[in-house]
UniProtKB/TrEMBL annotation:
It catalyses: UDP-N-acetyl-alpha-D-muramoyl-L-alanine + D-glutamate + ATP = UDP-N-acetyl-alpha-D-muramoyl-L-alanyl-D-glutamate + ADP + phosphate + H(+). Its main location: cytoplasm. Residues 320-433 form the Mur ligase C-terminal domain. Pathway: Cell wall biogenesis; peptidoglycan biosynthesis. The keyword Cell division applies. PANTHER family: UDP-N-ACETYLMURAMOYLALANINE--D-GLUTAMATE LIGASE. Keywords: ATP-binding, Cell cycle, Cell division, Cell shape, Cell wall biogenesis/degradation, Cytoplasm, Ligase, Nucleotide-binding, Peptidoglycan synthesis. It comes from Winogradskyella sediminis. This is UDP-N-acetylmuramoylalanine--D-glutamate ligase. One of its GO terms (cellular component) is cytoplasm. Residues 120-298 form the Mur ligase central domain. The gene is murD.
Length: 456
């Protein structure tokens, strides 16, 4: 063991780390915490999956599930809280009242690496942008992809500790940072989402997203959508320390990225590169923006122009995001299960180039559907509501299309869509809602859709 690791163990000796949530981030943090000399206890109100239980057992880490034993929790020195647990939960309130520090996984794990951190957040596009950024970097750099994707950030630091990390980060994770400071921060956009977690106040959600830059200095970089009015309005009223690199489809920027006809022009410190968009693997205006953000990172980190161009042209996108599944009887079935808010579904409907049977619904997070009305009127021929409570959807769209059907089963939704669609149509799963009423998560929802399509 290195002298640095020995020192870390001595400093943290007997410090008690409590982890609330026994999922990917919780178990990764438990492993890192134990390796750094913490006394670790994992507690989950639900049932911990067997694959995670086995990791905890094999590493002799104490845990409990289907309960929270407060006497074992309230003697913590530090608590790492799963992003899925809201602050309004009684136990979390008691932890804070006891003066115990509560952090997210990204906050805890970042203390144990000197790597360059690229943090990507936003209401939509962050998964695609993070995956694309990693794709652009990985040929030339040692880079990990973590946050809401793949193996946890904490586990990767313990096992690999890459020189660079691309982190997809949610507002929930940002809520529990203290010192977390990425070298490069990206804010893809801000539209109303998760308002149930923010007292139904959009300004609270906006402030949460901007926490990604709160610890940055003038030596760091902030890449953001200069076409997003919410972001621009916030920047007018708040001072950001880092160097701003905006990207835009509609205006020319001196530093950052903009669209000039069919070319992306990126300028950083008077160093300009031009990337054609004609052969972008991903379609849609929103994906041009994702490509701008990712390419700006690659240019900052001195990736070769040829590598950036080739990577943009061969990137296949991410699962459950406008994923073309199959074409059956000349009907294209598209899986956009990752569209868990209205703005994501806006991009999906915008990109439809044929009459569409739209499968929508789930847990409404305070959605406002008005911005979808033009696309529904123009492109949607039938709506299939897939949720336990579809009243708001029916009220919003019932007068716009001739056919509105309700179901609570994915297999039935796909069979109904099969009957309603004609040759040349699209069948689009783009729920605009969370998945937790009928599915484990959006991945489960998307996989069920794909399986149902394949079984037609």
């Amino acid at each position: 063991m290195s002298a640095c690791a020995e020192m870390t163990k001595r400093i943290n000796k007997m410090k008690r780390l409590i982890i609330l949530g026994g999922g990917e981030s919780g178990v990764g943090t438990a492993l890192l915490g134990k390796a750094k000399g913490y006394e670790v206890f994992v507690s989950d109100k639900g049932k911990i999956k067997d694959k995670y239980k086995n990791v905890l057992l094999n590493n002799e880490i104490e845990f409990e599930d289907e309960q929270h034993t407060e006497i074992k929790i309230l003697n913590a020195d530090i608590v790492m809280k799963s992003p899925g647990i809201p602050d309004k939960v009684a136990l979390v309130k008691r932890i804070r009242e006891a003066g115990i520090k509560v952090v997210s996984e990204i906050e805890f794990a970042s203390k144990f690496t000197e790597s360059i951190l690229i943090a990507i957040t936003g209401s939509n596009g962050k998964t695609t942008t993070a995956t694309l950024t990693h794709h652009l970097l990985h040929q030339d750099l040692d880079v990990g992809l973590a946050g809401n994707i793949g193996d946890s950030f904490a586990k990767q630091i313990l096992e690999k500790n890459h020189d660079n990390y691309v982190l997809e980060i949610s507002s929930f994770q940002l809520d529990d940072i203290i010192d977390f400071k990425p070298k490069i921060a990206i804010l893809t956009n801000i539209t109303p989402d998760h308002l149930d977690r923010y007292d139904y106040k959009f300004e609270n959600y906006i402030a949460s997203k901007f926490r990604v830059v709160e610890n940055q200095t003038e030596d760091d970089y902030f890449i953001y959508d200069a076409d997003d009015e919410v972001i621009l309005e916030y920047l007018k009223r708040h001072q950001i320390q880092s160097k701003k690199l905006p990207f835009s489809l509609t205006k020319v920027v001196d530093e950052g990225a903009y669209l000039d006809k069919n070319n992306i022009v990126i300028t950083i410190d008077n160093n300009k590169i031009i990337m054609p968009t004609n052969n972008l693997a991903l379609e849609g205006k929103h994906n041009v923006k994702n490509a701008m953000a990712a390419s700006t990172v690659a240019h900052l980190l001195k990736i070769r122009k040829q590598t950036i161009r080739e990577s943009l042209e061969n990137f296949n996108g991410v699962e459950h995001r406008l994923e073309h599944v199959l074409k059956i009887n000349k009907v294209q079935y598209i899986n956009d299960s990752k569209a868990t808010n209205v703005n994501a579904t806006y991009f999906a409907l915008e990109s439809m180039d044929a009459p569409t049977v739209w499968i929508v619904g789930g847990v409404d997070k305070g959605n406002e559907y008005r911005e979808l009305f033009p696309f529904v009127n123009e492109k949607v021929k039938a709506i299939i509501c897939l949720g336990t409570d579809n009243a708001k959807l029916i009220e919003s769209f019932g007068n716009m299309v001739d056919v509105v059907v309700e179901t609570q089963y994915m297999s039935e939704a796909v069979k109904i869509a099969y009957k309603l669609a004609s040759a040349g149509d699209n069948v689009l799963l783009s729920p605009a809602c969370a998945s937790f009423d009928l599915f484990e998560n959006y991945e489960d929802r998307g996989r069920q859709f794909k399986n149902a399509v394949r079984n037609l």
